[in-house]
Amino acid sequence: MNAIEGVTSDPGTPGIKGDSTQWNGVLGLSHAAGQAGVAGVNEDSGNGLYGRGTGNGVWGHGFSDANAIGVVGVSDHNDGVRGNASTVGKSGVTGVHDGAQGQGVWGQADNGTESSGSARSAQESTAGRTTAREYGESH
Question: What is the pLDDT of residue 121?
């Protein structure tokens, strides 16, 4: 069976487009160990994969393997995962653990500081340091 391939050099025109009013626009399914259902690669200066939605922009769910992680970020030259928020009262990164004996956010550094933070107002900065001291964590 031949693979479907789309190629274009026209600006603003996708190589392949999927559109649906009832389900996923594009579905990728792989039965090969260690391979992705959908892979995004950009060999210039853009994103390998981009998600935008009225719900979550990107969502990951690791479910069948005890070591499966919902979302993994790896970088050879910058932060592995980064979160930005501009809404009042919201966080750039939030970690929630709703089971027994776990952490909402956990950090490890083999050669450095496992956690750090800064706040622009004195009130926020004091609250962050107090919380870190109360739980015996370094800040």
Answer: 60
Count CB neighbours of 115 within 10 A: 13
Give mean pLDDT in consecutive 10-residue pieces for the chain, a chain of 139 residues: 88 91 92 91 91 91 90 91 90 89 86 77 46 40
- Contact criterion met (CB below 8 Å) for 8 and 17: no
Torsion of CA 75, 82, 57, 7, to 10 degrees: -30
124 vs 130: CA distance, rounded Å: 10
Give, in order, the Cα–Cα distances in Å from 125 to each of 56, 113, 114, 121, 134.
30, 18, 18, 6, 14
Query: Is residue 95 within 8 Å of 104, Cβ to Cβ?
Result: yes
Integer Cα distance of 28 and 38 in angstroms: 5
Residue 72, token pair as written in the block: 């993994």
CB of 132 within 8 A of CB of 115?
Answer: yes
Structure tokens at 80: 């592995």
User: Smallest Cα–Cα separation from 92: which of 81, 78, 80, 103?
Assistant: 81
